[in-house]
Amino acid sequence: MKRGDLQISFSWIFAIIAGIFILFLAIYGVGKLMGMQKTQTGLETGKEIGILLNPLETGFETGRTTSLTIPAETRIYNNCFDNEGVFGVQKITISQKSFGEWAIPESGVNFRNKYIFSEEITEGKKFHIFSKPFEFPFKVSDLIYLTTAEKIYCFSGDIPDDIIEELSGLQQENLKTENCPENSINVCFSSEQECDIMVNYNAGIVEKGDEEIYFSGDTLMYAAIFSDTGIYNCQLNRLMQRVKQLSLLYKNKADFISQRGCYSNLNSDLAVLENSAGTFSGNLGSISALAEEIKDKNDMANCKLW
Fold it and tell me: What is the DSSP annotation of 228-265?
């Protein structure tokens, strides 16, 4: 074998090795770039959801509802933390399917003033959102309900007329009181029916399998229907933290206006509500009764606090 032939062979081997190395770097770089793009897309979608929710937080009187359509198959992760800061944290994380695989949700968007009730993972391309104010006894916040269009909720049984009217007014395509498809999630208001979700309206209990979720008022009833138990309990704790702070503010207001001869006679009741909300452990019975009593007193007071 000639010396020149040996040199050519080494040159080709070097070129092949260098080519493989460059190809590896290119593939690695594209993979990293796609991962960064997926993360950025998740962050942008999370922020878009937050922006989309703002117009809904002006009240429910007009039956406000909206939908969100995303081109790619998407998972919305609802994370709630009730032990961070004064009011806890609502975190939304997004994962989208690309080339048949789900991106790993690496980051999310935090909200301290939103209360989203949903399953821990809501999946689809189209999502429905509506809101309803939570008063306890004063306006605390707007609760937001997030569902996927792929799940149809069929309400049946002895449904109160105002709830039927409310659901009809929403005109949300995945909430039905009649003409329900076979794969619907049955939400029953009657014990004689076979259902996925049982609502004992008078007792204030929503049953899902072996789990019982306690609610007070229609706003929390919807929250119990559409959310997982862990999400519901965490968000309820966050709401009670807000009730505590608002009770203190209204108590200070009552003290202030009483110095000017305007009496609400709610100082002591608000102090009890503040303490009850601060030590809330999941029992809605007594604190709901207290909130209703305070509401009645405020309605009849000459100097209303709210």
Answer: -HHHHHHHHHHHHHHHHHHHHHHHHHHHHHHTTT---S
Query: Residues 6 or more apart from 154 whose CB is under 8 A from it?
Result: 176, 177, 180, 184, 185, 186, 187
Do 163 and 89 touch, CB atoms closer than 8 A? no
Please state the pTM of the whole predicted model. Answer: 0.82
Is 91 exposed, middle or buried (CB count within 10 Å of its CB: 0-12, 13-18, 19+)? middle
| Per-residue pLDDT tens digits for 162-199 | 999 999 999 999 999 999 999 999 999 987 778 999 99
CA triple 158-161-165, angle to 5 deg: 125
Cα 251 to Cα 306: distance, rounded to the nearest angstrom: 11
The domain spans of the chain are: 29-149, 151-227, 240-300
| C-alpha closest to that of 250 among 219, 212, 221, 277 | 277
- Alpha-carbon gap, residue 305 to 258, rounded angstroms: 11
